[in-house]
DNA sequence: ATAATATATGACACACTGTCACATGTCAAT
DNA sequence: ATTGACATGTGACAGTGTGTCATATATTAT
């Protein structure tokens, strides 16, 4: 997390700095992006930067997680919309992310995040689900999910299903980015994953 | 790939260099590892390094992929052993990787690979399956898989199943590493994933 | 007005990368 | 054995970056 000093800054200065950072992380992936470029664009001194942030990563993950927050909020609404059908809601959420990747700048930023991803980047993405599973929020969302669809209603398995879904969703974003799939192609691939997961891949007499 | 010059080196010199590299990549993840350290340990000059490799990544992925090759070879045997039961074979392969993570040095090396992974690292891992799906090898392995177990025998879906399985396997290795799970715990988690995938998570009357 | 605290600065030491002109080794042809 | 062509080895160097620190300036509280 950025230091308090950063949050004490005037809104204008803060925005300006974040914009410069976003520019740099759009230009280059985390490990290639340079603080030097960010402070040059933002017009602040090197020393100041270190008053605001621990280091480059600190700023980066602050930005990235902020971007992903929107998705988390969105998901609750989707569950309601689809009468608690987990998979249907997940499919629409994935569609939302794929659309976000259409904006050219946004695309490059996330592409940089996905292609040169670290564990922390993956965590940032999959934490969309954690929110729903770990804390108080769970009760709310847990209720939204219609268990009638599911084979198992055990909490433990439900949590595991979330983990699987998020791994597959993350993988789908990478697949799209790497192979340069269109949104439709990526969506088709994701739907196939979800369909196989729903039905199961083995015959039921085993 | 390393340059020809590297392969022209005497075996002794090559081994020595690879060992120095492995030491460095065990000490630090890719982005923190330094060529400077590698050449100091190996006792070669900076210029020589660039005669052998394009850059740090070139050497790194040569090492990593070599390590993973063994797993690819192993998998064919496992399919035969389990009478073509894809999931059973996959479970034993995952077990093999988890055991590899028991050796302390190996563990640190792979930990560095997993935690600060890039897309290319994930590719290296999941390419274990690509081998079986893309080229001539497919026919061999495709035959080994007992389709009687599966709901769908369409090639396209089989390929997709491989992709899902590899995404979940990769995710499992990260989960183990990050949460510091024991081999048994990790295996249990992976088996649950496989079991859910086999049976499907939705009731069949939908 | 003064002290205390918070913020800003840029020079600096240190580390690393990739390159290049030059040195040395190898080996086939004469 | 000598030559020349080609392969390999070298380390100084320019360029770029990071994180720190002594010092300067601003802000706030008393």
TrEMBL record, chains A, B:
Coiled-coil intervals, chain numbering: none
Q: Which UniProt keywords apply?
A: DNA-binding
Q: Which stretches are labeled DNA-binding?
A: 34-53
Keyword DNA-binding in annotation: yes
> Pfam families under this entry?
TetR_C_19, TetR_N
**Alphabetized GO MF terms:** DNA binding
Q: Which residues form the HTH tetR-type domain?
A: 11-71
InterPro entries, per database record: Homeodomain-like_sf (IPR009057), HTH_TetR (IPR001647)
Domain of life of the organism encoding this protein: Bacteria
What is the protein name given in its UniProt record? Transcriptional regulator, tetr family
Q: Which organism is it from?
A: Mesobacillus selenatarsenatis (strain DSM 18680 / JCM 14380 / FERM P-15431 / SF-1)
